[in-house]
Amino acid sequence: MASFNLRIRTLVATVILILISSTSPVASVALERRQDMCNPQVENLTPHDCNVAFYNLGFSGENKMLRGPGAVNMNSGTCRVIVDCPGQTSVSAGRLLNNVGTPGGFVQLQNVCTSQGKAGQIFVEGGCQVRTERA
């Protein structure tokens, strides 16, 4: 009887270990951050046009917040800037510009992609995407 209980315990422990180890890769995939990148197929964006579009997105209030029921976008010359956050857009200019002091934000997007005339996208804290494309 004692060896039967030991076998049952071993079997149950093995099944639990298999279940735990098989679900962890699924959880880690779901939490991966989307990638920042340039789009080499979309060219001839002018950094100045993207700056003008960004600063005319419609920031308001003391904290310079950008709000909208969905994605918010603005065109200027060759460039369209789109800000898209999960649910509805509600994000500060500081977070969008430089991701509150951490690497990222519109400034980095301009330095890495638009300065070469390319469109691109970058993600900031809170899951918001800042994207440039040809207007």
TrEMBL record:
Question: Which superkingdom is the protein from?
Answer: Eukaryota
Keywords for this protein: Signal
Report the leader peptide range.
1-28
Task: Return the protein name.
Answer: Secreted protein
The organism named in the record is Puccinia striiformis f. sp. tritici PST-78
Q: What is the lineage of its organism?
A: Eukaryota, Fungi, Dikarya, Basidiomycota, Pucciniomycotina
